[in-house]
Amino acid sequence: MEKYMTKSVGLLDKAEATANSMRRDELLFSYKGILYPTTVCSPETFKALESFEVRRNDVILAGYPKSGTNWLSQILTDLIAISQKKTPGSESSVNAEEEEEPYLEIGDAEKYERMTKLPSPRLMVTHLRPENLPKSIFQNKAKMLLLIRNPKDVATSYYHFSNGLALLPSYETWDDFFTDFMTKKMAWGCYLEYLSEWNKYADKENIMTITYEEVKENPALSVKNIATFFGIPLTEEQLQLVVERSSFQSMKKNSDKTHGSFGNIFFRKGGVSDWKNLFNEDQSKRMDKAFEEHIAGTKLGKKLKYDLYCKA
Ligand SMILES: Nc1ncnc2c1ncn2[C@@H]1O[C@H](COP(=O)(O)OS(=O)(=O)O)[C@@H](OP(=O)(O)O)[C@H]1O
Predict the structure, then answer these.
(1) Nearest atom of ligand 1 to the alpha carbon of 248
(2) Is residue 143 within 8 Å of 83, Cβ to Cβ?
(3) Residue 101 to residue 119: CA distance in whole angstroms
(4) pLDDT digits (tens, 9 = 90+) for 44-64
């Protein structure tokens, strides 16, 4: 059997090879009204996920695609290592035997059985909407970090990602992508609906919401707050180490180890406001209107500071 540096890279490599021989209209399938990539998700896995038992001390990161989940996942991995008295990034902090694809809904249906053998705390990442997560997450009150990002940058990042990977439908023009983004044709569903659904959970005490923009603005304070939420004490030195290792430059530099040949696709620009290079005035107004209608007045809507990050 081939050996990959991480399970995720192996899975992605295979998915890309399969996707290369598929027609564009075969790349996504619909499950309970939401589209997902055929090469990495399946109805069997979704079915098996329903009865997965989440433990109270599992660490869960939820975020729509392109909201910075790889970034926050790196921060959480290091914080978990620290909580286990290991040095982040050291050989002893990684146990390849115990590794499982961290994205909950990605992989084969047997993964949940394998995960029952993993020690606590298990880190899980998901792009799913809350109603499609296993009920045990909410019943067992596992702590969850909900990551959100301004919708214009999410769309921009998603556009480049769709054209960078074979497993997602690619687009000849940004205009075509924008139309699909606004009409619910994205893998993992419509982002504004995602925000609206998660907003129903935003007041729960076991959920902490954080924005991509606030982590970018003040990474040290963000890491500190995340550690406090998960009950992980940190020395100043450990805090600096986590911040340093999770900077865009460090992660991009290290990406040949973590993401193989996909590094440049997952770590593209890592900034705020790149949307200004793609959106025309009309598209910008259309997003403003949709945001105003569906999200602006909600708790998550306010947290996104839309006027600051999405208006010229
Ligand atoms: N360390 C760090 N700092 C700042 N920004 C970062 C970092 N790591 C990843 N990124 C940016 O996050 C975007 C990808 O989001 P995801 O990781 O959620 O993508 S994925 O859906 O899991 O593929 C994508 O955003 P864009 O650069 O705007 O495309 C990544 O570059």
Answers:
(1) 1
(2) no
(3) 15
(4) 999 999 999 999 999 999 999
Output the CA–CA distances (angstroms, integers) from residue 205 to 141, 145, 262, in the order listed.
9, 11, 36
Helix and strand totals (H; E) in the chain: 17, 6
Domain 7-310 has CATH 3.90.1640.10: no
Q: How far apart are the first and last CA of the chain?
A: 52
**How far, in Å, from the CA of 139 to the mean position of ligand 1?**
30
Task: Give this complex's ipTM.
Answer: 0.99
CA angle at 88 for the pair 84 and 207, rounded to the nearest 5°: 65
What are the tens digits of pLDDT across the range 98-145? 589 999 999 999 999 999 999 999 999 999 999 999 999 999 999 999
Q: Which two tokens stand for residue 253?
A: 């530099």
CA dist list (Å): 228 to 34, 142, 145, 217, 223: 35, 15, 12, 19, 9
Nearest one of 8, 57, 31, 19 to 128, comparing CA atoms = 31
CB distance 291 to 310 below 8 Å = yes
Is the minimum distance from the CB of 263 to ligand 1 under 6 angstroms? Answer: no
Nearest CA to ligand 1 atom 21: 65
3-class secondary-structure state, position 114: helix
Domain boundaries, the chain: 7-310
SS3 4: coil
